[in-house]
Design a protein that fits this description.
about 55% strand, globular, 4-stranded antiparallel β-sheet, single chain, mainly beta, 28 strands
Length: about 300
């Protein structure tokens, strides 16, 4: 289990950072702010050591300059980035030596709050501000299915990667819903006491962690949704959440400026740190060695996980 985290570098994006992701293997960090995504080279040269002063090597103009990026997702091969935010369009980027747009996915909703991609890279799932979940065929760049159920904006999403057949979404309608992707049908709906801002599926077990407006993280068994642990060490709404690949721990961030690391599922606090402003987004590297956060301080922060 992790014991603590150590800050390695600050990535001074220049705008509030609402979305972050780390490449696999760990080489680049992507930060989404107002209108653009910046790509940071955190392992310059061939030495393999992380830089304490990473530089932005590319800036991708994805949306209009007054619209925030809300989610950016890499396809599993690391060669394609999908970006969504406060606009009807998602942009698909070819991450070659000189990144370029290779597609635009036009949605009927005014905004996209969260994204997920299928393990085979064929489908993208977007959480829409109208409550719908759009399922995109990335080859044809068209919506092939629309999952309807949320009565308010769909705010967060994750795929149960153990078999790839179950999708989980959370919404501003206070519900978490699961969907069978083989039949495109809703399987479960569970109502909570407050709006859902974040969720994550454990990659190795039957656990779902849900971050809420009312300062609480709930960890529950996917099959029952009744056996659960309530984690109450945030002082304000829980804005983002991400499981480690091992499934043994996960992190959550909040409006209270905290980054908390929890042992799964019972919520023993493994580590915590506090930043200077709301922490809006987070990601954990595929090897579980690094965490990146995006904050209201107009920067991202890269941490090393100390075991």
């Amino acid at each position: 289990m992790p014991r603590h985290v150590q800050e390695i570098a600050k990535l001074n994006h220049g705008d509030v950072v609402c979305a972050v992701t780390i490449s696999s293997p760990t080489r680049h960090v992507y930060t989404g702010g107002k209108g653009c995504v910046k790509i940071w080279d955190i392992v310059p040269g061939n030495g393999g050591r992380l830089s304490s002063s990473p530089q932005a090597i590319h800036e991708l103009d994805c949306l209009s300059r007054d619209s925030y990026i809300r989610s950016c997702k890499l396809l599993p091969d690391g060669k394609t980035l999908i970006v969504g935010g406060e606009a009807a369009n998602l942009t698909v980027w070819d991450l070659s030596a000189v990144p370029k747009i290779k597609g635009t996915l036009t949605s009927g909703a005014p905004a996209c709050y969260a994204l997920a991609v299928s393990p085979d890279s064929k489908l993208c799932y977007s959480c829409c501000s109208d409550g719908n979940i759009s399922v995109w065929d990335l080859l044809s760049q068209k919506v092939v299915i629309t999952l309807q159920g949320h009565s308010d904006g769909a705010s967060c999403i994750d795929l149960d990667t153990r078999d790839g057949n179950r999708l989980w979404t959370g919404g501003l309608d206070n519900t978490v819903r699961s969907w069978d992707l083989r039949t495109s049908s809703q399987v479960q709906s569970h109502e909570f006491a407050s709006q859902i801002f974040s969720l994550g599926c454990c990659p190795t077990g039957d656990w779902l962690a849900v971050g809420m407006d009312k300062n609480v993280v709930e960890v529950m068994q996917m099959a029952k949704m009744t056996d659960k642990y309530q984690l109450r060490l945030h002082d304000s709404c829980v804005l983002s959440l991400k499981y480690a690949t091992s499934g043994k721990w996960f992190v959550s961030t909040g409006k209270d400026s905290k980054l908390n690391g929890w042992q799964n599922p019972h919520g023993y606090l493994a580590f915590h740190t506090k930043e200077g402003s709301s922490v809006l987004s987070c990601d954990v590297s595929a090897d579980d060695k690094y965490i990146v956060t995006g904050s209201g301080e107009k920067k991202a922060t890269l941490y090393e996980v100390i075991f």
